Amino acid sequence: MIAHLQRATTTAALIPALYGLDEPHGRLRPRLIGADYRGADKQLPLFGDPHEVLGGGVLDAPALRIGARAPEYPVWMCSVRSDPHHPDLSDAQWADVARRLVTATGLAPAGDPHGCRWAAIRNGDHSVHVVATVVREDGYIHGTYRDPFHVQAECTRIAAELGHLTRTVTTAKDHRMPAITISAGPSGSVVATGTSDDLSATLLRHAGFKQIDDWHGRRHRLPSTTPRPDAAAIATHATEMLRAARYKVDLDPRLDVAQLTTAGQRITDLTDALRGSTGFAELAGVLDGAVDEVRSATSGAAGTAEVRAADDLRTRAALARSTTAPTVTAAGVPAASTQLQPVPAAAASPAGRTR
User: Which residue segment(s) compose the domain that 304 sits in?
Assistant: First the structure.
């Protein structure tokens, strides 16, 4: 199953598309197969012609109620199509699909009387359109940022339950090689390879990748001008969606937001430990620990800048241990240092002769 999300200003604006009024080859006959109008103040149909629901502003009412606080595009529509190579679902089954989608996204959670209003409409085979408002009955606005992820993940689960997912025979080599790889290239661009099917391609395009089809094959790429923090966030989000859809994804550690966040926190902790050191021995211990962590993180990368930084930290730790701190006598007077002190430049030259 493939889902496509779009927004509109009012439900009436969806009438031309759902009825096929803007198509040159005939008209469509949409039918209402299920709905939940929440706190609507009049009896409304659950089946039949959806024109009264779409044109009467039934779903728009919560957005009109909050006035200027309503978003510019308060109408939410999710179009879902199933694999045409499998038998079509009945109206009751498609209505259940619509109910599961509004539940998975949080638009209308089960048992929540203040959720969003929605309706399920069919105007063709192997598809359904779920129309809803993002404004809840209690006046709060549903956050739609994660909706594509939740919708596609739920569609994949439904397709698996219906037996619509294609099953292939895998070998030991297939288990060793990742299905999809997301990595950062030398030029700074982030490239996703191994996306040969439409579902993974759709998820990557939604995340922000641009699809490229040429003689090299299909691949997806982020522009090389994308800032590294943004590229890491996009790559991590794409990986989450792909893994939720049961793909095996190999993500470059340099693009893993979780690992980058952990490294940043460790640097902050190390900085605090260095500032809090009260003696040379304690400082040397902190530096030794930093060296061990840097070498562990950069194992197998001999000659890199990170390893040279570790060697520099090792030298600093050795210098810290070799430094003799002045001792204090019982009288509170610093004792004489046992290290040789540099001779001032004026004392190093022979005394001038007098005539």
Answer: 258-322
